[in-house]
């Protein structure tokens, strides 16, 4: 099995543990495509995108 490269979260710029990671592939989230996020950071990005479009969570 190949070791995955160390991922850093593009939102908070810190290192991601694999068990805490969300891999974003097909959904373009803001400026990010095909990235790993922390789960909480990803939710935050989604919230910001939704707010920009005027959707309430």
Strand order of the largest sheet: 1-2
For the record, the count of structural domains works out to 1
- How far is it from the N-terminal to the C-terminal residue, by CA? 40 Å
Order of helices and strands: EEH
Overall body shape: elongated
**Structural class label:** alpha+beta
| Number of helical elements | 1
**Poorly predicted sequence stretches spanning 5 or more consecutive residues:** none
Residues in β-strands, percent: 5-15%
Q: Report the radius of gyration as a whole number of Å.
A: 12 Å
Question: Main β-sheet, in a few words?
Answer: 2 strands, antiparallel
Beta strands, count: 2
Question: How much helix, percentage-wise, in residues?
Answer: 25-40%
Mean pLDDT: 73
Organism: marine sediment metagenome
Protein name: PARP-type domain-containing protein
Describe the structure.
- The protein is α+β, with helices and mostly antiparallel strands and 57 residues long.
- The chain is 26% helix and 14% strand.
- The chain has one domain (1-52).
- A two-stranded antiparallel ribbon has the order 1-2.
- The protein is elongated and about 35 Å long.
- It starts with 20 loop residues before the first strand and ends with a helix.
- The mean pLDDT is 73.
């Amino acid at each position: 099995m190949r070791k995955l490269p160390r991922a850093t979260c593009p939102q908070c710029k810190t290192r991601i543990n694999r068990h805490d990671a969300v891999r974003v592939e097909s959904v373009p989230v803001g400026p990010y495509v095909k990235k790993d996020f922390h789960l909480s950071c990803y939710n935050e990005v989604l919230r910001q995108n939704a707010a920009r479009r005027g959707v309430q969570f």
